[in-house]
What we know:
The protein is an all-alpha fold and 74 residues long. It is built from 3 helices and no strands. The protein has helices at residues 7-11, 15-38, 45-66.
Amino acid sequence: MSAGTKAADLRELDNEGLVAKLREAKEELFNLRFQAATGQLDNHGRLKSVRKDIARIYTLMRERELGIETVENA
């Protein structure tokens, strides 16, 4: 995933795409946490960014589950 995925980009994906992005983000978070534990992590800010991406994906999935439509400011 890129550094800080935009919600508008995620909204364009279908449900399978969101699940794939979630899987990628969780795998990246695992790898970053492993690097942090072994002292090999260079960019500690990336941990925060990936956690926010995961939360953003979960939020979009929940919005779709509830049928909530949000209006993006264009």
